[in-house]
Amino acid sequence: MCGLCDRPVFAVAPHPPPCYDVGMQESPRYKGLIAPIVAVLVVGLGQRASAEAEEWGLSVGPSLVGASESFDTGESELRLFWGAQGRIRYGRDDFWQLGGSLDVGVSSPHAATASTLLAEIHYVIDILTWVPFVSIGCGAKIRESVPTSTDAPTETALDLVLAFGAGLEYRPSRDYALGISGRYELLPTDVDRTDFAFQTGLNLTLFFE
Hints:
Layout (H helix, E strand, L loop, with lengths): L20 H29 L6 E15 L5 E16 L4 E12 L5 E12 L5 E15 L11 E15 L5 E11 L7 E15 L1
Antiparallel strand pairs: 1-2, 1-8, 2-3, 3-4, 4-5, 5-6, 6-7, 7-8
């Protein structure tokens, strides 16, 4: 009762808090963590994805070139050329690269030489520390033939090469990478003598702008 007007006074009970109030009160703590996590992921992936865009890469390393060659006698021989390779490439964007490569090797036991010069296009998946890629190339191969006798002169052959390659690089830093690569080669101008050819090698790549 009101002491002034003798009218009843009704007390209004407060509404009970909803069952999700506790979660809503604690949610700002978790909301504060979302923004930094998203920022780290975006920045990290963005740096990896654009690591080779508008960059030059210079690769060097040991190389092994093989070629299966047929002779007039009907026999075939797998010739192996041990040597070195070099490659230069330019990143047009995060995925496509243009470049060229040169391989020089010496076969054993005939001591014949072989060199391959290619213009290449690479497709690179550059979003992780491990960077796979595929490539296609076209160029020329120069080889010294195997003498059929000790008195026969050594001949040199020049052939067109179509190359299909792949590789994997480990790039822990923007400055360098370690990798392995290989390719399968077709020689359209020497299909009668060369059954197939291939190349594989290890690479150290330095990047610069």
